[in-house]
Fold this protein.
Amino acid sequence: MGYTIYICSSPIRHLLLLVIFTALQLANGGLDKDFYIVFLRDHLELDEGKAAQKHVDLLSSLKGNEDGARESLVYSYTKSFNAFAAKLTEDEVGHLSGMDEVVSVIPNRYRKLHTTKSWEFIGLPTTAERNLQVESDIIVGVFDTGITPQSESFKDHGLGHPPAKWKGTCAQFANFSGCNNKLIGARYFKLDDFPDDDDILSPIDVDGHGTHTSSTLAGSLVPNANLFGLARGTARGAVPSARIAAYKVCWASSGCADMDILAAFDAAIADGVDIISISIGGLSGNYTSDAISVGSFHGMRKGILTVASAGNDGPSLGGVTNHAPWIFTVGANSINRNFQSNVVLGNGHTLPGTGVNTFEPKQKSYPLVSGMDVAKDAQNRNSSSQCVQGSMDPKKVKGKIVYCKLPAWDADYIVKGLGGAGAIMESNMYLDNAQIFVAPATTINETIGKSIADYIASTRSPTAVISRSQEVKIQAPSVASFSSRGPNPGSQHLLKPDITAPGIDILASYTPMKSITGLQGDSRHSDFTLMSGTSMSCPHVSGAAAYVKSFHPNWSPAAIKSAIMTTATPMSSKTNKVAEFGYGAGQVNPTKALNPGLVYDMDDFSYIQFLCHEGYDDSSLANLVHQSSINCSKLLPTNGEDALNYPTMQLSLKSKQEPTTGVFRRVVTNVGPENSITYNATIKAPKGVVITVKPAALTFSHVSQKRSFKVVVKANPMTSKKLMVSGSLTWKSSDHSVRSPIVIFNPVALATQNVK
Ligand SMILES: *[C@@H]1O[C@H](CO)[C@@H](O)[C@H](O)[C@H]1NC(C)=O
Ligand SMILES: *[C@@H]1O[C@H](CO)[C@@H](O)[C@H](O)[C@H]1NC(C)=O
Ligand SMILES: *[C@@H]1O[C@H](CO)[C@@H](O)[C@H](O)[C@H]1NC(C)=O
Ligand SMILES: *[C@@H]1O[C@H](CO)[C@@H](O)[C@H](O)[C@H]1NC(C)=O
Ligand SMILES: *[C@@H]1O[C@H](CO)[C@@H](O)[C@H](O)[C@H]1NC(C)=O
Ligand SMILES: *[C@@H]1O[C@H](CO)[C@@H](O)[C@H](O)[C@H]1NC(C)=O
């Protein structure tokens, strides 16, 4: 019951399971034995069986016998990297860490989960050009809460057998009817031994999150999708002909364990997926110890791009997760639609509020009270002004609409429980996305709240009615309030997030196993529902990546990512206070990304160079690559400011008195037309910054030709109040525009700027 209150304390209810995960983590912290992931030196020249036996042997040498070893071993990762998960005591971890063949031992941690119209909004209409033959050979792997196989979005109309490269599996499991030619793979990973009464050991999606993200990514066309009449339209994914493989790694009460996520990477890479979409975050380790970072690195080495959500920790700064340079990190932006449920007061005034209120009022008006005036007793006045559970007198609430103040995100649920007629919740945050209410309700801002309070004070018997929600058009895009912002906590030389995509009030498929709010007493079910989060924006970009890959099957993960970033639509720094730290390169534009002209390409060696530059040493890199192949001190000297061929640039100021100069070395590859073509550099420099490019023109005579250039950024010191400024470099030809934002970050400002 305590959890319920937490779950509802945010506008984005479905994301708030995470509070539970944290609690669970704390609860498990005291156990004598814990789960660890142990990375080993050899990188799988062995066959799988032999590698797994080696894991047993290693544990046997530690435990003194094979039985103990087998009991402690939880999983052998043998396909894409060499590691195992085991239940170990701290002493055993100490011993293992000292062993020669052991590279590192990391504790298993638990993470959290972070449409009709959105595709039109970003310019990918149903009529967009498609390369169907190849698209139907594309397999997207979704790591999430599982999937709903019977959903209309996963019907396989017209699709042939899975592509020959597919090596994955699907079977019938509890409550899971099996796969078809659309949903070609489904498996689950749950290596811990904690029971989960709220979930089912099967790829079935009890939560709805995985069904939602998968259908946004690659769902088939479903006409007339809607949530109780709202957001009506044809639901579809970016690549309706692509195949889906679901990897369930997130569980209702335990969250998403690192060892399960790594097992899913190990499997998906070997199964033959093309793109991995992962709307999970919540923890950030460094680049060689974070499970998503390590797993996605191994994917990248096999040509698989991992697209991940940036997190929902905005608007405070520096919360972006999944920020490794080989991951495509996605923030969320609004679309030009909002759901309004208005309040009509007894004095005739209509006041705007936000939210999904599917209830048609039964009466013309209801008595209206302020939470403060319906307290159980004087001591509870403060809590009842926030509609806190247990603070209000049910007799004074019954049949009335109650107005309460932040943080009353669950006021609708609590007021309903007391027999109230509805709730009006005032907040100064997160009003850009619509919460789905369990009773008549709306959320309003502080100005509107003041008018309501004034009205209540002005009359003996105040009344109000809350109208059913309607869609309204709004200005868009802007960065979602909740979307995690930069600067990147993992590196001062790398701009994150990379990009944004629609992540507010996205309509997509849902599970029949949960009511639309998941709250007690809600019996409303729907095949489609609205959700908000970077979890929703992530599959828009995974879908765009699959779309680009269907036209360019041989492009590397870095090339696909570069194409999507350099063609993104820049957003306005006027309406988005921290500019690129909110939106990266801008909003994804899938059709433009098909034809970027030039790409910034990279291979695993480039990323290793970057890590060396960041101060990782040869031994910590061994989680990623065969150790003997790296010698950081050999790699370093002449790599410029970031030692990376990234499509964006970030310079961090090094002094409060002197200008800081950074040299960025870049190589672009021509992927444009066959004939000779010249690109000219166009520079936009903010005040106090000088940016020069050498050479200022690049001429290509054939496809795949590479050209290198150098960008010198010289930035004056900034006041400690100024967090960042930004400019850009755009390579322009007659047909193409290849844009890279350039950010100058002032680290000393971060501490002072980090307001809530
Ligand atoms: C899952 O299947 C079992 C056995 O058929 C059934 O008893 C149970 O109600 C199902 N659970 C859900 C949530 O549908
Ligand atoms: C009432 O609640 C607010 C906000 O939680 C708090 O700042 C204030 O101190 C409380 N006042 C009393 C009298 O408890
Ligand atoms: C509250 O909303 C109203 C109507 O949209 C708007 O005019 C007002 O500026 C908003 N107030 C705040 C504090 O955002
Ligand atoms: C990364 O994290 C691991 C595990 O916490 C640690 O051993 C290693 O030293 C860290 N590396 C860097 C460069 O911070
Ligand atoms: C790495 O390279 C440096 C510089 O070339 C050299 O001095 C050092 O011996 C090398 N280390 C190893 C382990 O090969
Ligand atoms: C690039 O610059 C050259 C020399 O100034 C000019 O002749 C050419 O038209 C420019 N090309 C483009 C595409 O702007």
Notes: Residues 1-31 have pLDDT under 50 and may be disordered.
